[in-house]
UniProtKB/TrEMBL annotation:
Entries under InterPro entries matching the protein: 26kDa_periplasmic_antigen (IPR052022), SIMPL/DUF541 (IPR007497)
Gene Ontology BP terms: DNA damage response
Name of the protein: Uncharacterized protein YggE
Native species: Agrococcus jenensis
A Pfam family hit: SIMPL
PANTHER family with a match to the protein in the record: PERIPLASMIC IMMUNOGENIC PROTEIN, SLR1258 PROTEIN
Amino acid sequence: MVEILVRGEAVERAAAERATVTVQSRWQADAPDEAMGRVATGHARVAAEAKAFAASGAVESWHADRVWVSHHREWVGEGQPQRLVFTASASVTATFVDVEALGAWIGDLGVEQLHEVGGIAWSLAEGTERELAGRARSRAIADAVARAADYAAAAGLGTPAITSIREPEATAPRPPMAKARGIELMAASDSGAAIELAAGELEVRAAVEVGFAAEADRAGD
């Protein structure tokens, strides 16, 4: 009896279905009330728009943080007193299912100095990810069986039988290469035009370690 241990792998791909983005409203001023007031107004607008997108079905979920303020001393020049600067900030995070709506929103927000858009995190719907993971695992087992059969044949052994199955590590979708593309385009936009976003594909990978046992092939005896 000979033991054979192989690793099977498989990849399933699908176009991203969700785009999560964070919009931060941020402003600096000499007085805390000025900074807070400017951010509170802009933040309220962003939150209201996210809520409207959710009502229309373009956004799956969203949440808004509270406005907060901090301060620091800024160097002005040699021999001059430092300037006390107050910074107010607040953010809204939304998960879009309508990529075109997201592109239009980013283009609209990009013309205002108050708002900063963070990187877009692409993802799959839970059902899609679960389906792809199941298919990837099945193909990983098939890959392991094929590898073991190749080794057994090369070593003059009979058909290997599975004795153990082990998943070495959890797998997760890989982010697409286009993750930050929309933000780069937004930075170059000054007209409020919609930004064309390309999500690309996400990968769901599966890996499995499978143990086999095979006996010497006695067909020729």
